[in-house]
């Protein structure tokens, strides 16, 4: 009986032993897009040596190697080329004996021979010369050890041809599996495919290790669709996947975005208690994150905890990026703290993901803390991260912090402000009404060679409109037209906002600009300014306007139009617009009713729109009493917190004053900011005493 060699091949996750057998001849199968006769490509020595990477120990670690956190960290030092010793199955009773007798060690002649073969030019003549110098009495076991020690697949393949000539009746599939592993190490999937074709042409039957190695090669080469193809090809060669291959396919299907197959195999893995490596969980988390299923990310993370699988940096970074996309800063904070407790140190991708999560959720305190930590630890901050910070500062009003970060950016030496940087900061100054600072930054942007875009000009219009500087608004509009920039819906909305701020005497100047920029909006404004009486035509014009407006601008535009109605003393038109907004679902969930309470929700409405909604609601309450209905025990008005730093006329302040003016029984709730509450008895008594509908005050 022949010897049994226990050689670890990273092409398979399990411990694989090969028994002596003779390969059965088979018909050659060649794929149409592969060459019929495989020829070794000529590669310069520097090319194939520079492609070599350290050898991972398992099939999924081969994938993990390419996602090692150090590869994501610009500060991490790359590992020197290294090669682990051949791995013996510790369960085998012959393992110790084989290791004792093996010549495979760092100082063995086989190791030196492998290094010589790795470094020589890839020609059959040179490879044969090196092997001949060692002697021509190689056994199959010797050949396997030499090939497994090598790192260069191109010269290793030439060595296989030499061994095929010298060693008769060897199990050549083992030789080819080792070469496939080397092609995977240098990420040459095309070479692996051609080698498989050569196997078939020579009548060598592929086995489970062959397919698992090719599948993992496709995966590490970022070709998951190729991996799926090879997985589906296995049954036609009589190879059945084992649990380790199925486990790898969870990762592969996750990479392709095939959630159904990935989850089907994942559920099976949990039910049958397969061993699933960390990289598979990371792949599932990335899949859920890219598809927007953020709860799915957290479920996989919790599965890892239950199964006792320790997350690595890739897992944590994938989770943090997903939470950032979801604007779930609290979850990101908890995950980060758990990562630190696990003894892992944040790298650049960790900080970038955290910064994204905090900036998108407007967690300014935590975002600024991450920024300072990045600076203190010497992490480079690129333009994208700086711009995320500026965008957050512009939205929450952290002006002083933004100015300091802007100076840091300009003095960093690694990046400079771009158009988005200036747009964010100009928007920040615009929102805070700092006109001189905004104009200075606008001039700096122009001097830096950046042409103003519609976003920048929109911010200028908003700022000048808020300051009631009508002529400057008109000047910016003319500048936009001169530059050949088409005014978008947001720009037109800011023109309309400016119109709600300036005196009535100056409405005409802005109405002319709006008419040129957006004729449909201009037509609706003309109805209001000229007090035209045709209600049906007005609703039709307004409906056509909203249906042609971008979704994220509709509410703001409807708010501004209602504000303009209130300013022009057109309460009926204001109610028409509010009703149209509800019909078109521009406004949703303004009222909520149950047997115990009726609430009016005014958060994110403008002052005019909120007052209009209040008048409609109070009149509805009066009609309910007239019809003999009883009011619920509790009535409430929710105006929101009103904490935005840019707001001057926040709703809670306006409503507190307005409700006092109406002598309404609604009082500020002690434990609910922005809420005004009244009992049914108080509301009923007040409604019966007023005897008329609520009219809007300008």
TrEMBL record:
SUPFAM superfamilies linked: TPR-like
Keyword Nucleus: no
A cellular component term, taken from the record's GO annotations: chloroplast stroma
Domain of life of the source: Eukaryota
Alphabetical list of InterPro entries matching this protein: PPR_rpt (IPR002885), Smr_dom (IPR002625), TPR-like_helical_dom_sf (IPR011990)
Ranges: PPR repeats: 172-206, 207-241, 277-311, 312-346, 347-381, 382-416, 418-452, 453-487
Keywords assigned: Repeat
Cited Gene3D superfamilies: Tetratricopeptide repeat domain (1.25.40.10)
One Gene Ontology MF term: rRNA primary transcript binding
GO biological process terms held by the UniProt record: chloroplast organization; positive regulation of translation
Cell membrane among keywords: no
Domain Smr, chain residue ranges per copy: 600-684
Family in the record: Belongs to the PPR family. P subfamily.
Protein name: Smr domain-containing protein
Organism: Psophocarpus tetragonolobus
């Amino acid at each position: 009986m022949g010897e049994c060699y226990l050689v670890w091949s990273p092409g398979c996750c399990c411990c694989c032993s090969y028994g002596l057998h003779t390969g059965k001849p088979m018909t050659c199968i060649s794929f149409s897009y592969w060459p019929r006769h495989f020829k070794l490509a000529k590669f310069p020595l520097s090319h194939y040596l520079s492609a070599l990477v350290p050898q991972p120990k398992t099939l999924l670690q081969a994938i993990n190697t390419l996602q090692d956190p150090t590869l994501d960290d610009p500060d991490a030092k790359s590992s020197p080329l290294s090669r682990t010793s051949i791995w013996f199955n510790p369960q085998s009773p012959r393992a110790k004996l084989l290791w004792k007798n093996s010549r495979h060690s760092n100082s063995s002649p086989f190791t030196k021979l492998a290094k010589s073969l790795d470094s020589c030019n890839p020609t059959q003549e040179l490879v044969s010369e090196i092997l001949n110098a060692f002697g021509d009495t190689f056994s199959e076991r010797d050949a396997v050890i030499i090939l497994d020690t090598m790192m260069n697949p191109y010269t290793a393949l030439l060595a296989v041809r030499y061994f095929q000539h010298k060693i008769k009746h060897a199990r050549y599939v083992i030789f080819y599996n080792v070469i496939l592993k080397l092609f995977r190490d240098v990420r040459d999937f095309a070479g692996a495919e051609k080698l498989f074709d050569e196997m078939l042409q020579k009548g060598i039957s592929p086995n489970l290790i062959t397919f698992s190695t090719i599948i993992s090669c496709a995966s590490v080469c970022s070709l998951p669709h190729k991996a799926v193809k090879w997985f589906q090809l296995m049954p036609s060669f009589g190879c059945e996947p084992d649990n380790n291959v199925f486990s790898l396919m969870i990762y592969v299907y996750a990479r392709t975005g095939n959630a159904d197959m990935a989850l089907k195999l994942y559920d099976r893995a949990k039910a049958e208690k397969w061993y699933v490596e960390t990289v598979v969980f990371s792949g599932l988390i990335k899949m859920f994150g890219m598809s927007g299923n953020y709860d799915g990310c957290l479920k996989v993370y919790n599965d890892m905890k239950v199964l006792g699988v320790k997350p690595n940096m890739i897992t944590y970074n994938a989770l943090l990026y997903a939470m950032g996309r979801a604007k779930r800063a609290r979850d990101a904070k908890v995950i980060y703290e758990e990562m630190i407790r696990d003894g892992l140190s944040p790298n650049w991708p960790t900080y970038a993901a955290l910064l994204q999560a905090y900036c998108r959720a407007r967690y300014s305190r935590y975002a600024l803390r991450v920024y300072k930590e990045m600076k203190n630890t010497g992490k480079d901050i690129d333009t994208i991260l700086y711009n995320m910070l500026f965008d957050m500062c512009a939205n929450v009003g952290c002006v002083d912090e933004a100015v300091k970060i802007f100076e840091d950016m300009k003095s960093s030496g690694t990046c400079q402000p771009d158009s988005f940087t200036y747009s964010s900061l100009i928007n920040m100054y615009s929102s805070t009404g700092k006109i001189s600072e905004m104009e200075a930054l606008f001039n700096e942007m122009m001097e830096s060679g950046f042409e103003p875009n519609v976003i920048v000009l929109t911010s200028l219009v908003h700022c000048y409109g808020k300051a009631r500087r009508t002529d400057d608004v008109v000047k910016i509009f003319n500048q936009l037209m001169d530059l050949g920039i088409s005014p978008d819906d947001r720009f037109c909305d800011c023109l309309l906002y400016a119109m709600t701020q300036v005196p009535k005497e100056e409405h005409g100047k802005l109405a002319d600009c709006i008419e040129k920029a957006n004729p449909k909006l201009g037509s609706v404004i003309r109805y209001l300014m000229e007090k035209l009486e045709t209600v049906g035509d007005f609703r039709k014009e307004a409906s056509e306007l909203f249906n042609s407006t971008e979704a994220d601008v509709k509410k703001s535009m409807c708010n501004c139009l209602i504000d303009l109605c209130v300013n022009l003393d057109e309460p009926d038109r204001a109610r028409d617009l509010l009703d149209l907004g509800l019909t078109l679902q521009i406004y949703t969930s303004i009222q909520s009713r149950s047997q115990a309470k009726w609430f009016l929700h005014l958060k994110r409405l403008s002052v005019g729109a909120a007052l209009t909604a209040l008048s409609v609601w109070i009149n509805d309450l009066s009609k309910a009493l007239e019809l003999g209905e009883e009011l619920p025990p509790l009535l409430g008005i929710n105006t929101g917190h009103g904490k935005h730093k840019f707001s001057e006329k926040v709703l809670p302040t306006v409503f507190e004053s307005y409700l006092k003016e109406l002598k309404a029984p609604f009082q500020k709730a002690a434990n609910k900011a922005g809420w005004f509450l009244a009992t049914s008895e108080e509301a009923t008594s007040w409604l019966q005493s007023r005897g008329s509908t609520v009219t809007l005050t300008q």
